[in-house]
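As the work plan foresaw, our protein records have gained a structure token line. A representative record is set out beneath this paragraph:
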Amino acid sequence: MTETTITRRSFLAASAGVAAVAATSGFVGFSAWEAEQAHAAGEKKAVHSLCNSCSSKCGFTAYVGEDGRFTEMVGDPDHPYCDGTLCARGYGYASIAWSEDRLTDPLKKNDQGKFEAISWDQALSEIAEKTNAIIASDGPQSLIMIQDPRPSGSFYTKRFMNALGSANVYTHGVSCNMSKNSGMTQAIGAADFTADVANANMIMFLGRSYADGIRPSSLHQLRDAKANGVHIVIVDPRQNASCLYADEWVPIKPGTDLALILAMAHVLIKNGKYDADYIANYTVGFDDWAQRVQEYTPEWAAEITGISAETIERLANEMWEAAPKACIEQGWRAAFGCAHQNSGETARALCLFNTLLGCWGIEGGAYFPASASAGKLTDPKFAAPAAPAEKIIGQAEYPVSSGGMGVSTFALSTIPEGRVKGVFFYQSNCVAGYSNPAQLSEFVQAAELSVAIDVQMTETCQACQYVLPDTSYLERLEVPEFVGGKIPVVSLRDRVLEKIHPNTKPVDEIFTELANACGVGQYFQFTIDELADAQLQTIGLSLDELREKGTITFPEKALKYGLKTTWNTADKKVHFTSDACVAAGFPASPGWLEPLVMPGEGQFRLVGGKQAIHTHTQTANIEPLMAITKMYGLERIWMNADVAASMGIEDGDEVEVSSDTHTGRTRVKVTQRIEPTSIYLPSHYGCSVPEQRTAYNVGLRQMDFVPFHIEPGYGGTMSQETLVTVKKVGA
């Protein structure tokens, strides 16, 4: 490390003064760091890039001095996810480039289970030899890849696996949004939609918190909605940070959102408060669902959800009065993204309820972002390998899961039986981030070949035989990122810094060299610069143009409001019933399906959720961000104040949390901001890797308490289907 580089300690010192702002709003000013670095001499160069602290990949401009000092980050006003503003995570995560805990050399696990540094030549040749041996003995379908989607990562991992002959490329969807996307697809033929929050009359959120997420533009929409008088309702077991903007917080028992939706649908259909013309013209199967929801009265749902029948009926009527400028927002992980046994069916029911409102495509309702994309590359050197004919492992076992995400947990579970022999991970810490890390680690360790590519040592790296060091996101160019929105854009992650550690490699080089070593290098005869430029040439742009601007908009493709009448289903209609769901063992139209577990005496359902300063596990080892955690005790579990009082537990006490799979100790936050049957455990902590010195042993890891199980049909992790007990240490 040179004298001109910014150390994590200097960044921490500069950031401490704005910690309070970050803790409350999720945003942090960069003025302190800028002021400290203002003495940097010489002219500054502007470089456009994309953040990597979460999947939003917000655009920013980096300012770099003549001496290579990175002194300033400014959000890109044209990027639809940041809207000119970066969040605390974005600023903090930039320090990953200078982290003392970076992986700097290829590693191989020796016979004693310890990692030793090896050369790239040795790593590549040994990995290739083992890969080809597995293909020769068991076929390419015995190889899998799990990757956390990033611009170049998505391109190169799929291309590499397809070149080997394997279809098995998985994202982190099983632990995030698998069930949501799959359930919605069964209803409306699309995995996502966007709530037009700022222009609505009423918006209901189920377990989703823009202020905890945190995509800056989403928080801006929430702020604008509040200013515009939008009626904002937050349905969540805990009073999340978005409640600062809400008119109403409705505490709900975890896993019962489906009952709430069914009861609200009952109210509307019983009273004829739905868009009958839209349903008659653009949907199928309505009568089936209308018949099914007859039994789901508000009184029935009140017993299940903990929400009074009067409130349920009122909310349903208010939604209808606000329609069509109203919808239930699509949610994400916590309520039904991948959380419960009924998550997929909850997503289906949500889309059908919104259909009753006739809100699709309407300003203030629910819309589908305008999009742009690169065209087909015609130059033969970019010719892609043939797509394997086989389906991704897990698709047959979980037939309504999203094949584009894949049920990676099921694929990993087949390693002990020999169905999967080799596993690659790119920027994925699934061992810590998916259910039952101890079980997942055993699966990975049982593989004949296991390779992790990452920036720092993780729990997943620890389980593997080989670890390859990636550059940080600030040290590489990636392929263009096309982002949808009201105005779609194309943006670029460009190189901000020269490589800090000379023996690290960017993702494009790693997979190109792996492909060459495996004998399939013919599909990688180009540089990342050539690929990026070729993709942009298909839409009349160049790499130089995008480098100059960072983000380029497509105003000619801007969203046009208008009632959506054509859907991406076989008959182009919304489906109140689904033959695929029937084949998977579900009813034709969504009805009540209980959560897998329900708390008994002395038990609580464990719920997780984000905080604005962290994303999954990757930001936990970032010193300025973890300093905020420690300053405000953000790693504590939340417990209802009345329940805590009955158990003799006070705020700040150390408690022991136990499930069937794990026991751990932490401090408790006693609050009225959580409903009585729930314990909230933030989902970013409990790192078990000593090499991550900032994160190691801070707080508890939610997934340690979650059994290894998979949602029937849909394939989600059921990450909140676990019960815990809590007791005061020393009591």
User: Anything to note?
Assistant: The longest strand covers residues 663-671. The radius of gyration is 25 Å. Residues 120-138 form the longest helix (19 residues).
